[in-house]
Design a protein that fits this description.
alpha+beta, three-stranded antiparallel beta sheet, globular
């Protein structure tokens, strides 16, 4: 399998913000390369695994830091330019499905990408299919897991707070 090597000149990292970006990317890639702790199911943990670029290793040299990942031939921006005439709704649906599966996989590992754009989505074109993967986790954030138990003082927000509680009649559209 082909690999991509991102070489970072340690002397060219001018500010602490740049160091943090490099550390974020490496931490996120390492986290994604491991099975998720406390995962309810191996099958659930594998959803979207193939839609995030694979991490192999980090090599430390005196002057350079080398991040070794899976290599993909095109980014989505280049793919859209080169295959403009062949992109139809079926191809667009595959792209959206694969990106969303990758986002789901990131979410399962408590990672927020924060920079999804065509240049950070990689594409491999086969004879009859395409494979889409998310890359570039430099400005990602690893978020804290939700508390395992809520106290009585916590307020619920979002979809679960509007669902009927046990014993209540459903409005009929579930």
């Amino acid at each position: 399998a082909a690999v991509a090597i991102k070489s970072i000149d340690k002397r060219a990292i001018p500010a602490i913000e740049d160091v943090i970006k490099v550390e974020n990317e490496i931490s996120a890639l390492i986290s994604l390369s491991r099975p998720r702790r406390n995962s309810n199911s191996v099958e659930r943990d594998s959803i979207g695994r193939n839609n995030v670029v694979r991490f192999f290793e980090v090599l430390h040299g005196k002057r350079f830091l080398h991040v070794v990942t899976e290599c993909m031939p095109l980014d989505l921006f280049t793919f859209m330019q080169q295959f403009r005439a062949r992109i139809n709704t079926d191809v667009a649906a595959v792209i959206v499905r694969d990106v969303m599966a990758g986002v789901f996989h990131l979410q399962e590992h408590l990672i927020c990408h924060r920079d999804i754009k065509p240049e950070n989505i990689l594409v491999a074109v086969g004879r009859d299919d395409i494979l889409v993967k998310i890359c570039d986790l430099r400005i990602s954030a690893i978020v804290a897991p939700p508390p395992s138990e809520k106290s009585d003082n916590d307020k619920s927000y979002g979809a679960n707070s509007i669902l009927p509680s046990e014993g209540m009649e459903s409005p009929g559209f579930f």
